[in-house]
Amino acid sequence: MNFSQYTKEFRYNLHLAYPVILGMLGHTLIGIVDNIMVGKLGSTELAAVSLGNSMVFIAMSLGIGFSTALTPIVGEADAEKDNDKIRSAFHHGLLLCTILGFALFGLVVLAKPIMELLHQPEEVISLAKPYLDWVAFSLVPLIIYQGYKQFADGLSMTKYSMYAIVMANIVHVIINYGLIYGVWIFPKMGILGAGLGTVISRIAMVVFMHIILAKQERLKQYFKGFSFDEIKKETIKKIVDLGLPSAMQMLFEVVLFTAGIWLCGNIGKTSQAANQIALSLASMTFMFAMGLSVVSMIRVSNQKGLQDYKNLVIVARSIFLLAIIIEIVFAFMFVALHNYLPYIFLNMENESQLMDNTEVISIAAKLLLVAAVFQISDGIQVVVLGALRGLQDVKIPMYITFVAYWVIGFPISYYLGEYTELKAVGVWIGLLAGLTAAALFLYIRFHYLTKKLVAENPM
After folding, report:
1. Helices of type H across 119-232
2. pLDDT, tens digit, 9 for 90 and up, residues 320-356
3. Which of 141-150, 257-266, 388-397, 415-424 has the weakest average pLDDT?
4. What is d(CA 254, CA 62) in angstroms, rounded to the nearest whole number?
5. Distance of CA 239 to the CA centre of its chain
6. Which of 399, 50, 47 is nearest to 258 (CA)?
7. How many Å separate Cα 328 from the centre of its chain?
8. Which of 94, 107, 294, 330 is the most buried (most CB within 10 A)?
9. pLDDT tens across 12-66, in order?
10. Closest C-alpha to 44, from 127, 114, 130
11. Cα 23 from Cα 453, distance rounded (Å)
């Protein structure tokens, strides 16, 4: 294997990936800012935000997963220089994302009674319900924004979503700070303020994204003269056929992590708070792999449009290798700092919470050691999944992810968490098993498909 043929692609991969990574980190930061600000109110409030967000994350994964269908269609059309196909994908995609955003908002609100069935602590549920209403509504602007983002990503214009997220984060921090603690002209709303802050910042994000894209000379042709007469059943079908399995893939993974939150909630509120801390930190590093997954989708769909399958394999493998290197660096960092990182999230000066908080820190430190290993598997599975989406191969990967997470991962999490002394650490060992299985099976699928394509299309 000639190593340099892969490493020479690193620079362009990183050039495309860094705005996506910063944008993804910005998304995660919105949740982390909520966790840090709310964590200062107490561990019950932190557990309530964790519970509310866990339900929203499930819906969000469906919306974001579905919207990823736009990128490979636009990326392939961009390589073919087919402007009509790009315009059509954008308009149909934006319409579908808008409908989906409202549908998901309604579903989350209707699903609130599930909290009682999950045996969560009563004081956590009573705080989580009103918070959930606001955060659920923020799904509407978020999924519409995804329509714009995936369109721009497909054209390799990855910077604009980064600008939108940076702006949203600034708005979010200011409004959150004011509404949670009642600073300056803002009323003191506690965790409701965190929910409202998320809604306002996400609406600002969509408005900003629309304006910044519509002003680009290259994109003006796609923003003119939208008409419902242009909406075609076959284009909707194509996007849905790609989007639905992609949504399910993301759903299977997110629901596995959400089940982890609920399992830790069953163990106790200190385990749930520790899980939230470890998950927040692991989510931050995962965003680097998520960014490379988008690059994988863009570059593989471009090579598919050009029908250059040999180069497609080199490009894809260069991204896989880069993801592994980055995640190994983070793994070492987690091992080195596992005893120190959890302190960022808790107020250790609060005497009444000291005993709880000390236990939370101890559990979170152990979880970070498992997270160090699992983020390597997580990184591999997500970049390979991106490459498969670029090939517009989504159905078989959907079945693979289901088996990996729910036939392998969840039973291990459940057994180790509920029936052994490992408790929360056992839950995370199950997550590690599921992610490792997904990484292995998805890579086998990618290797099989590309070998076939290269054999059928020798250049």
Report:
1. 122-137, 139-154, 159-181, 191-214, 220-223
2. 999 999 999 999 999 999 999 988 887 777 777 788 8
3. 257-266
4. 9
5. 20
6. 50
7. 20
8. 294
9. 999 999 999 888 888 777 777 777 888 778 878 888 887 888 788 889 989 999 9
10. 127
11. 33
Q: Counting every residue, how long is the chain?
A: 459
**Spatial distance between the Cα atoms of 72 and 299, rounded to a whole number of angstroms:** 9
Nearest CA-CA partner of 14 in 358, 322, 301, 280: 322
DSSP 30: H
pLDDT single digits (tens) 290-319: 999 999 999 999 999 999 999 999 999 999
Q: Which two tokens stand for residue 380?
A: 């591999």
- How far apart CA 239 and CA 242 sit, in angstroms, is 5
Cα–Cα distance for residue pair 186/197, rounded to 1 Å: 11
The DSSP secondary-structure symbol of 224 reads S
Q: Does 459 have pLDDT greater than 80?
A: no
For the chain, the helix, strand and coil percentages under 3-state DSSP, each to the nearest 5: 85, 0, 15
- Give me the phi and psi of 346, to 5 degrees please: -130, 150
Tokens found for residue 182 = 């009642």
Query: What is the distance between the alpha carbons of residues 136 and 225, in angstroms, rounded to a whole number?
Result: 31
- Side-chain half-sphere of 274: how many Cα atoms within 13 Å? 30
> Is the pLDDT assigned to residue 1 strictly greater than 80?
no
pTM of the model: 0.88
**Quick one: DSSP state of residue 112?**
T
pLDDT score at 289: 94
For residue 34, give Cα distances in angstroms to 264, 266, 299, 377: 20, 23, 34, 28
Phi and psi, residue 303, nearest 5°: -65, -30
Q: Which of 44-58, 115-129, 353-367 has the highest mean pLDDT?
A: 353-367
More confident residue, 11 or 26: 11
| Position 90 pLDDT exceeds 90 | yes
- C-alpha gyration radius of the chain: 22
Residues in Cβ contact with 222 at an 8 Å cutoff, skipping those fewer than 6 apart: 86, 87, 90, 91, 151
- DSSP type of residue 219: G
Among 56, 340, 21, 288, CA closest to 158: 21
CA distance 128 to 45: 8
Average pLDDT, the chain: 91
Cβ–Cβ under 8 Å, residues 151 and 298: no
| DSSP track, 277-343 | HHHHHHHHHHHHHHHHHHHHHHHHHHHHHHT-HHHHHHHHHHHHHHHHHHHHHHHHHHHHHTTTGGG
